Amino acid sequence: LADLERLLQARGPHIAAVIIEPLVQCAAGMAMHAPSYVRGVRVLCDAFGVHLIADEIAVGCGRSGTFFACEQAGIWPDFITLSKGITGGYLPLSVVLTRDAVYQAFWDDSMARGFLHSHSYTGNPLACRAATTVLQRFADDDVLARNALLSQGVMPTWSAALAGDERVTALRQRGMIWAFDVSPERAGVDFSEWFHQAGRRHELMIRPIGRTVYVMPPYLQAAEVYVDMAERVLATLDEVVPR
Ligand SMILES: *Cc1c(COP(=O)(O)O)cnc(C)c1O
């Protein structure tokens, strides 16, 4: 936050927006940060008059434990991007949400004054129908409450197997994301590819980011499936990095 403040002090007038992936930076290796960091970024963006964009394409739609990851920080960004989970991964759709004030800058009754920006497949009806069905499912089945139980239920399996394991550091969890890192001495070269190949023998579709092993499973499995998944990941680890 101190670095961001220095940057905004130095270059604020030339910066339109700060974009963050709140709570979990997924492609950076499932790097998790505290909700207070997200709040701090909001405070700085307000202080320097800079928009805050939350890229929730991976962490949104319940993945982090709340529907929007930003909810855990108790703030709203100026823009939220969604994709992936909004259709349960079944059809391609991406969404940009923004505040009324920003939306009004795009909108005008006169075509000549509106900011007409669109794509060939904007608002594709079939993809939107998949999205509204997913949202209905969240409401009808209280998916978030069920996920909270599932995500805590599977933690003992991970912790018991990995506690004190010298191959592994930083076992972590946020909502329906579990991750750990394999120590650099033990991972060796091409770890990600070896793990991916071995995972397939254990009927897992898993692809570590560098030395970070992570799982982001679909939500609607029976509870024992998540424990079975954890056990298969651990068996894969034993195969790739023997004790
Ligand atoms: C997948 C992903 C994207 C790209 O999303 P598209 O819908 O393919 O444009 C952007 N940001 C994050 C965090 C992602 O996980």
Mean pLDDT: 94
Ligand types? pyridoxal-5'-phosphate
Q: In what order do the strands lie side by side in the largest sheet?
A: 1-4-5-6
Output the CATH class name of the largest domain.
Answer: Alpha Beta
- Give the overall shape: globular
Q: What is this entry, summarized?
A:
By secondary structure, the chain is an alpha/beta fold. It contains eight helices and nine strands.
Structure description:
The protein is α/β, with parallel strands linked by helices and 243 residues long. It folds into 2 domains: 2-141, Type I PLP-dependent aspartate aminotransferase-like (Major domain) (Aspartate Aminotransferase, domain 2, 3-Layer(aba) Sandwich), CATH 3.40.640.10; 143-240, Aspartate Aminotransferase, domain 1 (Alpha-Beta Complex). Helix content is 42%, strand content 16%. The chain contains 8 helices and 9 strands. The protein has helices at 2-11, 35-48, 100-106, 125-141, 143-162, 184-187, 191-201, 223-240; strands at residues 17-20, 24-25, 31-32, 51-55, 79-82, 95-98, 168-174, 177-182, 212-215. The strands form 3 sheets. The chain has a 4-stranded mixed β-sheet with strand order 1-4-5-6. The two termini are 39 Å apart. The mean pLDDT is 94. The structure holds pyridoxal-5'-phosphate (PLP).
